[in-house]
Amino acid sequence: MEGNALIVGTGNEDLDRRLGGVPFPSLVMMEGDHGTGKSVMAAQFALGFLSAGKTGHVITTEHLTLDYLRKMREVKVDLTRYFLRGKLRIVPINTGRFTWNSSVTRTMLRLLTDYVSSVTTDFVVVDSFTVLGTFVEERDLMDFLRQCRIFVGSGKLVLLTVHPKVFREDLLSRLKSEVDVYYTLSSTTIGGRRVKVMEKVKTVGGLTGVDALSFDVDPSLGIKIVPLSLSRA
């Protein structure tokens, strides 16, 4: 991340108040299991970037274009107007078409690397990197991260979401050393209430904000911060 990185909001005032925004440019990773809100959180970040005048790509391995836009709109993360204005491009990768192995992964990761190197927009979100990460070889992963670093070095941002335990511990340590910001998302029960928790494992550049926050995804309100005092009530 460049020393003169800006802090860009997420478009959610309560989230920004606690989180402190997102450094831009940067290489960001969100790790979380199914149901922890990482796809919605990544889309919320994208909405903040778009609201700040950025343009970007969302590469989704879990949805088709209209399905992705609809699902995010249902939780008040409405990216549709930016998509229609050409400010956002949705790129679906139908992972169900492939029998995944190291050879297929290497090919797909090379294509993704070339894609990131060719885009002229301000940010790229990959949601999720899990399938590619499951079979990735260390050399191929580091080549991809090097391209991401070049992209970030040109004043842009890459955000990757991934499920836990995808990478070997030694490979995960190398990955964490490459990224600028690393979040983990989880679900827990506090005082009988089920909430999601987002923790900042790594930040650079003096990013302010809390190290952990609890939240819920409300269909009528979107991402809603849940104070721990209320979680325990």
From TrEMBL:
<keyword id="KW-0282">Flagellum</keyword>
<dbReference type="InterPro" id="IPR027417">
    <property type="entry name" value="P-loop_NTPase"/>
</dbReference>
<keyword id="KW-0067">ATP-binding</keyword>
<dbReference type="GO" id="GO:0005524">
    <property type="term" value="F:ATP binding"/>
</dbReference>
<dbReference type="Pfam" id="PF06745">
    <property type="entry name" value="ATPase"/>
</dbReference>
<keyword id="KW-0969">Cilium</keyword>
<feature type="domain" description="KaiC-like">
    <location>
        <begin position="8"/>
        <end position="227"/>
    </location>
</feature>
<keyword id="KW-0966">Cell projection</keyword>
<protein>
    <submittedName>
        <fullName>Flagellar accessory protein FlaH</fullName>
    </submittedName>
</protein>
<dbReference type="InterPro" id="IPR014774">
    <property type="entry name" value="KaiC-like_dom"/>
</dbReference>
<keyword id="KW-0547">Nucleotide-binding</keyword>
